[in-house]
Amino acid sequence: MEDSLLISPTDNDVLPISVGRLRAEGNRWWLDRQLSISREWEGALAVARIDGKIIGQLMLDDGRAYLAILDQATLQQLAGSTP
After folding, report:
1. Do residues 6 and 45 make contact, with C-beta atoms less than 8 angstroms apart?
2. Is the pLDDT of residue 83 over 60?
3. Which of 1, 48, 58, 69 could bond to 44 as cystine, CB 3.0-4.6 Å?
4. 29-64 core/surface letters (b: 16 or more CB in 10 A; e: else)
5. Which of 67, 13, 62 is nearest to 40 (CA)?
6. Exposed, middle or buried, 10 (CB in 10 Å: 0-12/13-18/19+)?
7. pTM for the whole thing?
8. Per-residue pLDDT for 34 more than 70?
9. For the chain, percent helix, then strand, then coil, each to nearest 5?
10. DSSP class of residue 62?
């Protein structure tokens, strides 16, 4: 896990998320329940604060927000490169 930035899918707003507000569980990083994340943020791109690399995408599960972490193969496919 690492400090991350969420980039809004609708208006390119940026929301910083510190690593202390995340809890890893499999390929999901759950956001602290105290963070209020509205539905407009669902689908936001999560990037690493330190280097800007794509980490995953913000998803909501019964009102709880998590980052769905993308594996390396998926990232390469999105970038149009081959493994």
Report:
1. yes
2. no
3. 58
4. bebeeeeebeeebeebbbbeeeeeebbbbbbeeeee
5. 13
6. exposed
7. 0.82
8. yes
9. 15, 40, 40
10. T
